[in-house]
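Z., the sequence and structure:
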Amino acid sequence: MTRFPGVDYMLIDSQLSEQELLVRQTARRFVDQRAVPLMRDCFREGRFPNELIREIAELGFLGANLEGYGCAGMSNVEYGLVMQEIERADSGLRSFVSVMGALVMYPIYKYGSDEQKQRWLPKLQAGEAIGCFGLTEPGFGSNPAGMLTRARRDGSDWILNGEKTWITNGSIADVAVVWARTDDGVRGFLVEKNTPGFTTSDIHGKLSMRASVTSSLAFNNCRVPESARLPEANGLKAPLSCLTQARFGIGWGVIGAAMDCYETARAYSVARKQFDDRPIASHQLVQEKLAAMITEITKAQLLALHAGRLKDQGKLDPAHVSMLKRNNVAMALDCARTSRDLLGANGIVDDYPIMRHMCNLETVKTYEGTDHVHALVIGERVTGVAAYK
């Protein structure tokens, strides 16, 4: 087990409190000791490390920035640092934690009834129950307003029909947060595993996010009671608000993947001898690539930290999160590609984590708002004109 030294060119640690540093160190130790040793084989085998769920829960990482119900009540900066460390292990592992907190626990916390909160949040926080978030459909990803899944009233119940896809945790979830169109607009429902008419199937053949469970959800006259509806979730803004929470975590998480790629390439370039038995780190072209990477990582760290401070002050809005997600994912993907280049042929084998990160980040660039959609969100913010409508 190799201890990760951290990446802090501009002394950003000096801007973190003792509590924030402690949270990060706790996450870093867990990642080094428990997660990193597993992720290569999990990616190879296409399996999620279920054995880590309870440990992640015991550390308070599920719903970490929520209050009550057993949740850790971390600040948003502390939560971001946890996401950063977990994604250093693998984007699939961070996706599990993000989905649980931002896309399952948050909508129940924000829009659920007291009964729903009391029933589900303690179990989800403890890892005793798993959840998923059903919004994306086969024909509607970037345009959730076009969803075809419908829920209609039938007496005191609701009948759901439709399909969701690319759903993280789908087939292992005990409860699905499902969004459907009704006569009164988009509404959210908690659909439990084994509910008649509700089935799941895993998506196979993935070359990315292989250590993550990705599924389709199908609803065929699936009947749920009125008590399954999230009473405070009215309209499309409700699921979009959940995605904003998740995108914030992504903006922090991908820094961890970039750090892992950069540190792998830096250490390799110092050790690798070539041309007159000199380390390749002595060559100008290599140093230029390392300099570019550390500069972009540092800029991403500063952007994430400022976004976290704004969120803790209640001043972060969705357009800010779009910039965070778009910039930092692109940065991480560029770092992965540059790091792969520095390792030459060794960069493509899974003795090193770089190609795994690169493959994962191709998905992270697309999900929860593509690069292009976030560019249009930013464009609308600076021009006042919505180009995507």
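The radius of gyration is 21 Å. The longest strand covers residues 157-168.

Let me know what you think.
H.
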